[in-house]
TrEMBL record:
GO molecular function: DNA binding
Protein name as annotated: Phage integrase
Family: Belongs to the 'phage' integrase family.
Organism: Paraburkholderia caribensis MBA4
Keywords: DNA integration
GO biological process: DNA integration
InterPro entries: DNA_brk_join_enz, Phage_Integrase
Domain of life of the organism encoding this protein: Bacteria
Length: 94
């Protein structure tokens, strides 16, 4: 991580299976940055709050005052968004 901080990601069981399956397969065509960018676009298109999507990535907060109050990772609120993202990504395989 560029921010040098631990980042927790609430992945569903199907998402974890998908990640494992993809990591075991040679010739993956997605890059980490491209996958992150796709997630960010998808989150915006599906009406998820900007702050929620940004914390899912996790982007650091440049504004020092805002960063001082940025104390929660919103894990419980991110969980349904990540479940929906997993469903979307896994639906693309069929």
């Amino acid at each position: 991580m560029k921010a040098k901080e631990v980042h927790h990601v609430p992945l569903s069981a199907p998402a974890l299976r998908g990640v494992k399956a993809k990591s075991d397969t040679p010739g993956i065509v997605a890059t980490a940055h491209g996958f992150r960018s796709s997630f960010r676009d998808w989150a915006s298109e599906h009406g998820y709050a900007r702050d929620l999507a940004e914390r899912a990535l996790p982007h650091t907060v440049a504004n020092k005052v805002e960063a001082a109050y940025h104390r929660t990772n919103l894990l419980d609120q991110r969980r349904p968004m990540m479940e929906a993202w997993a469903e979307h990504v896994l639906s693309l395989e069929s």
